[in-house]
């Protein structure tokens, strides 16, 4: 069994661009580390795919990042976290060549924070159809806060709106109002809504406008980043395995030029990417 000792970057994986909203916040809170961001843009979106397919794709991505040396991988994608994280943690990692490597998701750190926000104890979750059909949010909330009522809403049009650069356009209003109204009609007592998809922070102004002011919106980036910071404090054995150069390497399974153009929507800065293959 080989446990590499050379310090290496943290791997951050998403189906495409959305995880960049999480990476930005991680880098803001933990700028000292190196990161490899991997977007499986050639096969995104994951949100409308089946359980088995998301499992396979996510495992391939994790193996790629492990092979690149990363001892710690963050699944910065709700759909991958919902559908593949448990499988990887329970059925892949313990039997892999180095079981001390870790894969963490974005759902648990988000759920852990909800009690700071809700007073009515009625929570809404907006997410991709894949995340909603997994009921991962409802399950995790049920484990930590059994008294909280959860209503989940699939918003299949929101990812394409963001990816086509339409998040600020008037056309986005219809779909933002449609899904938020459906959710609030099902449970008018909701006072807190989790934006359970990496793309939704870009629609936040429109989502905010469509909801009563009293409803709190929870974005994940900050929560995931502080949870990672806390994890590294509690796990010095992992922290020592991380390289500290403040560098980010962007990798995509699609053409890099396309990635670079769209990534700027998510990061607000210019990035340089390389194309990689992650399939067997
Ligand atoms: N990154 C995905 C998520 O957070 C959204 C994009 C997709 O469907 O692949 O669920």
UniProtKB/TrEMBL annotation:
The active site is at residues 77, 197. The keyword Isomerase applies. The keyword Protein biosynthesis does not apply. Pathway: Cell wall biogenesis; peptidoglycan biosynthesis. GO terms for biological process: cell wall organization; peptidoglycan biosynthetic process; regulation of cell shape. PANTHER family: GLUTAMATE RACEMASE. Provides the (R)-glutamate required for cell wall biosynthesis. Belongs to the aspartate/glutamate racemases family. This is Glutamate racemase. It comes from Porphyromonas somerae.
